[in-house]
Amino acid sequence: MKNTTFNISHLYNSDLLIRFGKLVQTERKIIHLVLECISEIDARKLYLEKAYPSLYEFLVQDFGYSSSAAIRRIESARLFARSA
C-alpha cells in the first residue's frame, strides 16, 4: 500500500497555519455529515438490524469509537435531530 501521509515538518510556519486552517474547515464539514448519518441511523434504528441493542454499542463495536467519543456523537446527533 502506498504511504499517502504528507510530511509537514518541512512547511514554513505560514504554510502550516494555512494548511491547518483548511483542515479544520474540512473537519467541520465532515463532522456535520457524520452527525447527520448517526442521527438518521438512530431514527431508523438500523443498529437493531445488525443485532446491537443500542446505537452506543453499534458505534463502539462496529465502528471502533471509544466510549466517550460514541456518547458525544450520539448526544450531538440527537441534538442535531431536534434542531432540524
Describe the protein.
This protein has 84 residues and is an all-alpha fold. It has a domain at 46-84. The chain has 4 helices and no strands. It has helices at residues 13-44, 46-49, 55-63, 67-83. The radius of gyration is 17 Å and the shape is elongated. The N and C termini lie far apart (41 Å).
Q: How many strand segments?
A: 0
* Percentage of residues assigned to helices: over 70%
Report the portion of residues in β strands: under 5%
Mean of all residue-level pLDDT scores: 94
Spell the H/E element sequence. HHHH
Oligomer: single chain
For the biggest sheet, the summary is: none
- Which residues form runs of ≥5 with pLDDT under 50? none
Tell me the distance between the termini: 41 Å
Radius of gyration: 17 Å
Secondary structure layout plus pairing:
Elements: H1 13-44, H2 46-49, H3 55-63, H4 67-83
Helix pairs in contact: 1-4, 3-4
Give a nutshell description of this structure.
The protein is mainly α.
What attributes characterize this protein structure?
84 residues; mainly alpha; 4 helices; 74% helix
